[in-house]
Amino acid sequence: MNRRRFLFAVFAALLHRRSAAEGTRAERVVVIGAGAAGLGAAAELQRAGYSVLVIEARDRLGGRIFTDRSLGAPVDLGATWIQGRRGNPISELAARFGVEVAPATDYDDVALFDRGRPVDLEILARYESELQELLAELERYSRGLEEDVSIASGLAELLRDEELTPFEERLLAWFLETLALDAAASADERSLLYADDEGFGGGDHLFPGGYEQIVHGLARGLEVRRGERVRRIALRQGGVRVETDRASHDADRAVVTLPLGVLKASPGEGGVSFDPPLPEWKRRAISRLAMGTLDKVALRFPEVFWPAHDLLGNLDGAGGGLPVFLNLAPHLGAPILVAFSAGPGARRREERSDEAIAGETMEVLRTMAGEAIPAPERLVATRWHRDPFAGGSYSFVPVGARGEDYEALAEPVAGRLFFAGEATNRSYPATVHGAYLSGLREAKRIAALT
Question: Is residue 88 part of a domain?
């Protein structure tokens, strides 16, 4: 490179740096929430030259991504899987950050018990085929509906003239309970008309080292204020003021990634006040959508006593119990089981003590594996519904709501307030990748304005 070209390159670099700095001074964005949506939006905005501050109420990053290590191994108590690895942006982040990904969880690799006895796999396969046909029939039935009903109501109509054996009734109840785990809501709560979401292929994959690795990768280089709970968000002349319980932050724009459960709460219940109040169409969407609950009970035992399957199922755990256990021993090298519960049963369980939850969980396991199994060494139970910074696990569409409510929740207000999070992503709600993509969406929306 000759001297003239060298000087021109240096001048161009300095000019670019000055322009970026001027752009930074001209636009400041406050991002509320350090979950996948907030960190995704903040990283994208900072890359585009904006001055970005992330405010997080918790003393940790991740929001509803929470890797707990109290059992001596990384156990994800919130988000657990890459849901559909093929083409999923979380897979791309895992590759970028060098995060180990486990083989796909085999949901067919289940040891199912009924009243203490294993269910024959051939019988299970036959009924599974019938259940899948029942779901297909339910989908066809939904197309002819003029008014929305719950999934449970639709199934009851289809099965009105069927005479089920006691075993078939237990199997159907267990199957519905496993569907509830996916939506964090029971079949009685969920809309039949809006029950389907888009997804990625390629199976669901765990992170043996914990989902928090994705969070920490996204947060690199970002300014994050932890332990600041937002109390009020006010539109001001030409900008936004975000008031927390510790400070006030002025910015040109704000990206609000508060969970739906927090948006639904009143200021007196730990929610956030907006000044002026949010438009009626947005408040209506917040009111109509619902926040589901998916809780976990993670137990560490002195040894592995359960069969070597990805999942353990219990027909007696249906109806608000603990229908499914995830076997983490192959991934963590530690004798850890995680029990799942969802919907009203999970919310009721949150009112109980850890000791009561441990007793109930062990009762279920002893029904499955015998009275002689060892007691757990340690246990941790989640209470996402009672969590003041979440108000639940993730969103779902109840009877009376509609898919368009997700789109309304995503709409900006006054060109200053932008909204992201899984509950603003109609295509991929209730997922980490949906939350992350919504953050990128709002960052691009802001960039298009300036």
Answer: no
List pLDDT tens digits, range 14-60: 334 434 444 443 699 999 999 999 999 999 999 999 999 999 999 99
Chain position carrying tokens 């609000």 = 256
Number of structural domains in the chain: 1
Owning domain of residue 257:
3-63+211-289+398-449
Q: What is d(CA 439, CA 222) in angstroms, rounded to the nearest whole number?
A: 15
pTM of the model: 0.92
In this predicted model, what pLDDT tens digit does every residue of 212-256 receive, in sequence order? 999 999 999 999 999 999 999 999 988 999 999 999 999 999 999
CA distance linking residue 149 with residue 336, whole number of Å: 39
Question: 386, 449, 394, 441: which is closest to 416 by C-alpha?
Answer: 449
CATH number for 280:
3.50.50.60
CA–CA dist 239, 47 (Å, integer): 21
Give residue 434's region: left, alpha or beta (phi > 0; psi -120 to 50). Answer: alpha
Q: Say if CB 41 and CB 31 are below 8 A apart.
A: yes
In a domain, 402, yes or no: yes
Per DSSP, the three-state class of 15 is helix
Cα distances from 22 to residues 18, 28, 386, 420, in angstroms, run 6, 11, 44, 27
State the amino acid at position 190 in one-letter form.
R
Evaluate whether residue 33 is within a structural domain: yes
Q: How far apart are the first and last CA of the chain?
A: 36
Q: How wide is the angle at C-alpha 252 spanned by C-alphas 251 and 257, nearest 5°? A: 75
Q: Which amino acid is at 415?
A: G
Kindly state whether residue 124 falls inside one of the protein's structural domains: no
DSSP character string of 235-262: EETTEEEEEESS-EEEESEEEE---HHH
- Which residues sit opposite 236 in a β-bridge? 239
